[in-house]
């Protein structure tokens, strides 16, 4: 991955942290049954469980960046793709839920940023994969 792409991945992790904070502050775990279910697997206090799960998600993102993406390990792209796919889905889901609800839905403000960063990284990965295949021919 190019240095710019690594920086964009780090921005995606920072955006995920902001997204998690928005979801927490506006109580996603109170209005979205899957979030409540996952939170209650961790703690009987939904807010605490939700915070713990999101801290783990962001910590895992930081780990991916520090130990796989930043040092440009050969496996970096395999660690980045799940983040791309989940962030694209997250961006679409939050936006869709806000439209269906007819107003604000926790996480919708930061969801477009997740989507845009993930789309950029995804397109970059696809392009670099295509160019490296052609170079091998």
How does the SSE layout of this entry go?
Blueprint: H1 3-25, H2 28-31, H3 33-42, H4 46-69, H5 76-101, H6 111-136
Helix pairs in contact: 1-4, 1-6, 3-4, 4-5, 5-6
Description:
The protein is mostly helical. The protein has one domain. 82% of the residues lie in helices and 0% in strands. It has helices spanning 3-25, 28-31, 33-42, 46-69, 76-101, 111-136. Helix 1 (3-25) runs antiparallel to helix 4. The longest helix is centred in the middle third of the chain and has 26 residues, at 76-101. The chain starts with a helix and ends with a helix. The mean pLDDT is 94.
Brief rundown of the structure:
This protein has helices at 3-25, 28-31, 33-42, 46-69, 76-101, 111-136. It is an all-alpha fold and 137 residues long. The chain has one domain (3-136).
Give the beta-strand count.
Answer: 0
The overall pLDDT average reads 94
Helix content: over 70%
Count of helical regions: 6
First and last CA, distance: 21 Å
Structural class: mainly alpha
Order of helices and strands: HHHHHH
Radius of gyration: 16 Å
Task: Tell me, briefly, the overall form.
Answer: globular
Low-confidence parts, pLDDT < 50 over ≥5 residues?
A: none
- Taken as a percent bin, the fraction of beta residues is under 5%
Largest sheet, in brief, is:
none
- How many domains? The number is 1
């Amino acid at each position: 991955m190019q240095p710019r792409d690594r920086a964009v991945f780090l921005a995606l992790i920072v955006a995920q942290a902001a997204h998690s904070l928005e979801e927490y502050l506006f109580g996603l775990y109170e209005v979205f049954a899957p979030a409540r279910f996952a939170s209650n697997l961790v703690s009987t206090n939904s807010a605490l469980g939700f915070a713990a799960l999101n801290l783990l998600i962001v910590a895992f993102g930081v780990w991916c960046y520090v130990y796989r993406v930043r040092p440009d390990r050969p496996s970096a792209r395999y660690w980045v793709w799940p983040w791309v796919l989940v962030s694209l889905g997250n961006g679409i889901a939050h936006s869709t839920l806000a439209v269906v609800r007819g107003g604000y839905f926790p996480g919708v403000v930061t969801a477009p940023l997740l989507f845009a960063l993930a789309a950029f990284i995804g397109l970059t990965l696809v392009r670099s994969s295509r160019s490296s295949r052609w170079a091998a021919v």
